Amino acid sequence: MADETPAQNPPMAAAQPPPSSATVSDSDSPAVLEKQDPSPTSHVPAVSVSVTESVSTTIAEKEEQAPPPEPAALEPDSSDKGPGKEELPPTPPPQAVELESEPPAVTEAPKEENPPAPAAETVVISESESQLPPAPAQQEVVTESESLAAMMEKEETGAPAEPTAAGTTTTTTTTTSAQEEVAAAVEEKKVPQNLGSFKEESNKEADLSDSERKALEELKQLVREAIDSNLFNSESKTEENPEKEKKQESKEVSIWGIPLLKDERSDVILLKFLRARDFKAKDAFVMIKNTIRWRKEFGIDELLDEDLGDDMEKVVFMHGQDKEGHPVCYNVYGEFQNKELYQKAFSDEEKRMKFLRWRIQLLEKSIRKLDFSPGGVSTIFQVSDLKNSPGPGKKELRLATKQALQVLQDNYPEFVAKQVFINVPWWYLAFYTMISPFMTQRTKSKFVIALPSKSAETLFKYIPPEQVPIQYGGLSVDYCDCNPEFSDADPATEMTVKPGTKQTVEITIFEKCILVWEIRVVGWEVSYGAEFVPDAKDSYAVIIQKPTKMTAKDEPVVSQSFKVGELGKVLLTVDNPTSKKKKLLYRFKVKPFCD
User: Fold this and answer.
1) pLDDT digits over 356-377, tens only?
2) Distance (Å, rounded) from C-alpha 304 to C-alpha 488?
3) What's the predicted TM-score (pTM) here?
4) Cα–chain-centroid distance for residue 193?
5) pLDDT digits (tens, 9 = 90+) for 313-348
6) Which long-range contacts (CB under 8 A, 24 or more apart) does 73-79 make?
7) Distance between CA atoms of 512 and 491, rounded to whole angstroms?
8) Measured between alpha carbons, how far is 110 from 93 in angstroms, rounded to an integer?
9) Quick check: 165 and 63 in contact, CB under 8 A?
10) Residue environment code for 23-40, b if the CB has 16+ CB neighbours within 10 A, otherwise e
11) Of the candidates 526, 514, 532, the residue with the CA atom closest to the CA atom of residue 575
């Protein structure tokens, strides 16, 4: 924590403490917008939170240095009107500008006068972008960029045009930035987009259609007859006297630790096979029979207790849950850039089989932690990281992948809730285009493909930021004594910092305490600062951290604390002067004050 040295700022006027909940303050300046913080604050009644958005300091300084627009360029002079000159139509009045990320009812409109805000509100005075008319050519370029982004993703908002003035330098910068955005949008348009996202079906019998219930009952009858006749157990007999063994063996048959036909969990298992075979009971029964035989031949029960080492623990690992409670499995193909690891896993058939057994062992252990009750979570969220992946040119990896996919497809039906590919390179897009026609619509609806620049943002749509590993843009780390303050159970707030804007997270303190927080901007390239502003009139602001330019090479997460000895506000400010939007994550907690 930085030294708590009073900054040379004038005393702050006392403000009325807001209610102990997230608040929204309105400012008459069009450039200021305060939004209600979405994070719950019920667990910290000693504070409240609000977020203020204003124009970036860097852009505001450029506006002050730029010469004002010439009046003649905006409105024709009355002295130029004459009998031989055509009269130009008057310039239309400025129109209200609708905020891209706010509800349609919220608009910005210029006002002739700005009445002073109430004392309890936070007011940031800055020049609004909408007050300066942009050049027509620039507006066309930015509009094209935004429309392309809208085609890619409904939630995507194009970067707003930067404030422009009459100076040629500002105009050149804006045009170049817009052209870069158009190029990026065109490149992103090549990413395959699903027409509809997959939604898991209910496993409750009451939610099934009549035909689905009929197929389930038919399959249950087939399974009952097979168990009674000991068909599943006789499939893999190798003894010379199978009749004797038949009398000694139990008739109970289990898959993934669930005994078939014993309780309602069995229905969930059977529904997986039915959905994999379009609710054709006989086809699903054949699949079940083949799966049981394969599990015995592969030695699944013995595999669970087998020690296969930990060499591959960074290649595939389970970490956290998505927003619907599915456990998340990460597959990191870039680890195979390590030649020694690659040879150890794929150099010959024996090593490839050992790797397959290790992968199946991890999957089996993960499946046995699932909840197979009708309303439980019985699928896994898969994330495949293709950054630095060896690619399709590696024959050994291609053979191992094909072998694994065949095993999973034949013996582990309907265990994927969503398959997200991140850091996707160009070659995968070509590969996906080739194989896509051979996939069912159900399979393709589970796929989500994200380019490197969209990977973190894509993960946050499905996984809470506090559950996403730190290497993928989140806040989750392997917790130890070095980070005792926060865990995956501590929720984080996610928000977008628009290009050319500044976000200020204002945490109002109502009692003496120790405030601890974490803050992160994915990829940084922004300025971050923190200060404490007391409520007392004769007190001075305390600089916790001076505004500092943070780069991608800096620590991904900043952890800080501040001992609050008097009432006031802690302000966390992120200034984004770039032409790209940024993802801001933060969370905090209050600890008891001690002298």
Assistant:
1) 999 999 999 999 999 999 999 9
2) 28
3) 0.71
4) 17
5) 999 999 999 999 999 999 999 999 999 999 999 999
6) 73/166, 74/133
7) 23
8) 10
9) yes
10) bebebebbbbbbbebebe
11) 526
